[in-house]
Amino acid sequence: MRRDEVSYAVAVRDDGLRKVTRLTWRVGAVGIVCSALIAVAFGHNVQHTAPHPAAPGTILIPAQPPAPAQGAGQVTSGAS
Amino acid sequence: MTAVTIAKDTFGVFGTTAVLLVSAPRVLKPARAILDDELAAIDLACSRFRADSELSALNAAAGAAVEVSELFAEILEAALRAARLTGGDVDPTCGRALVGLGYDRDFAQVQAAGDMQPRLTGSLSGVPGWRSVQLDRTRRRVRLERGAQLDLGATAKAWAADRCADAVAAQLDCGVLVSLGGDMAVAGPPPAQSWRVRVTDDHAAGPEAAGQTVTISSGGLATSSTTVRAWMVGGRHVHHIINPATGEPARSCWRTVSVAAGSCVDANTASTAAIIRGAAALPWLHDVGLPARLVREDGTIETTTGWPRDQGPTEAA
Q1: Which residues of A touch B81 (CB under 8 A)?
Q2: Of the N and C termini of chain A, which has fewer Cβ atoms inside 10 Å?
C-alpha cells in the first residue's frame, strides 16, 4: 500500500471515530435530559405511592415489651 | 446518686383526661404548651361535635369531594390504615351508627341525658365501610360516599398521643409520656425505672384500682373497653365500640383489652379490633406478636406472649 493511501485510510478511520464519539456524547446528553424531565414529571407520583414511614403493612410490635412492676402507676391505662 | 424527678400535668381534653409526664420538671411548662397547640389543631380538624371542624364539613358534604388540611389527611390516612390492617374491623365510617345511638354530642351530655330514644329506626345492616372513603393524598381531597359519616374518635386520640409525644421529645430533648383518655405514647429516653402504668378498665380509676402495674419504655399502650363509654338508649345498654359488620355496639367476650405496640395508634387499633373480634382476638394477637392483656366479662384474664405475668388476684366481675 502506498504511503498516501495509508494516510488517507488513517484519516478516514479517525474521522469515523470522532463521529461515533460525538454521537455517543449526544445520545448520552439527550438521555440525561430525558431522565431529568421524567423525574420532574413523575416525581410526585413516586412520593405518593412510596410507603409512608409511619404506615407499614403490619401493626408494629413495641421495641421493648411491657415489664412487670409493683405498686401504683404514675398513670392509668384504661378506657375513656 | 441523683433521684430522677418526673413532673406531671393533668388536664381535660377531647371530653376526657390527658396526662403529661416528663423526665425533667423544667420542661413541663413548654411541653404543656406544645400539647395545647397540637391538641387544639387536632380538635379543630377531627371533632364530630364541632360545627366548624373539617370532619363536620366532610360529613355534611353529601358525597362531594372536600379539600382538607395536611393534618386531617394524615389522621384520616392513619384511620384508613387501621381499617386495612384489621380487615375492616376498625372502621372510620361508624359516625352514622353512633349518631343513631344518640352519641351525637360530647359524651358528658350523652350521659346526662339518661335513657334516650334512638335517632334512627331499623337496622343499619353494617356501616358503609372504609372503602367508601376516597382520600387523594396528593391533592388533599376526600370524598365520602353519600350516606357515609366519619368518626375518627379513637384513632385520632391515639394518633394525637403519638404526635404530641414525638413533638415534645424532639423539641425539648427529654423523655415524655402522653396519655389521652388512657391511650398513651412514650418518646425520648425513658426514666431509669421506665414509665409505670396501672392497667385497668377505666382510665379515670385511681392508681390502686383493680388491675396490673407494668412499665413501658417505648411505643404505645392502649386499652379498649365496653364498660366505660357506655350509656342507655331505648331501654338498652350500649357502648361506643361499633362492630362495622352490624352497625351495632360490639358484643364481645372481652370487657377490656390492653395492647402494647410500636405506637399508640397501633396499640389502639389492636385493642379495638380485639374487642370486636371476640374469642378470635386471642390467637390473632398471638400471631401478630403483640403483648396484650384481655379481661373477660367474669374478670378472668388472658395474656399473650410478651405481656408480663399478672401477679395480682383475678379481677372482680
Answers
A1: 55
A2: N
φ, ψ dihedrals at A66, nearest 5°: -60, 150
Q: Which CATH architecture has domain B1-48+152-188?
A: Roll (3.10)
Q: In order along chain B (317 residues), what is the average pLDDT of each group of 10 residues?
A: 78 93 96 98 94 95 94 97 94 85 74 69 70 94 92 92 98 97 95 92 73 95 85 74 85 94 97 95 96 94 92 53
The full set of domain ranges for chain B reads 1-48+152-188, 194-309
CB contact under 8 A, A69 and B263: no
The secondary structure of residue B314, as a DSSP letter, is P
Q: How many CB atoms lie within 10 A of CB B121?
A: 8
B88 part of contact set with chain A, CB < 8 Å: no
Nearest CA in chain B to A54: B78
**Does the beta-carbon distance from B263 to A61 stay under 8 Å?**
no
For B194-309, CATH number out of 3.10.520.10, 3.40.50.150, 2.120.10.30, 2.60.120.380 equals 3.10.520.10
DSSP B247: T
B119 is written with which cell numbers? 335517632
Q: In chain A, which residues have their Cβ closer than 8 Å to the Cβ of B220?
A: 62
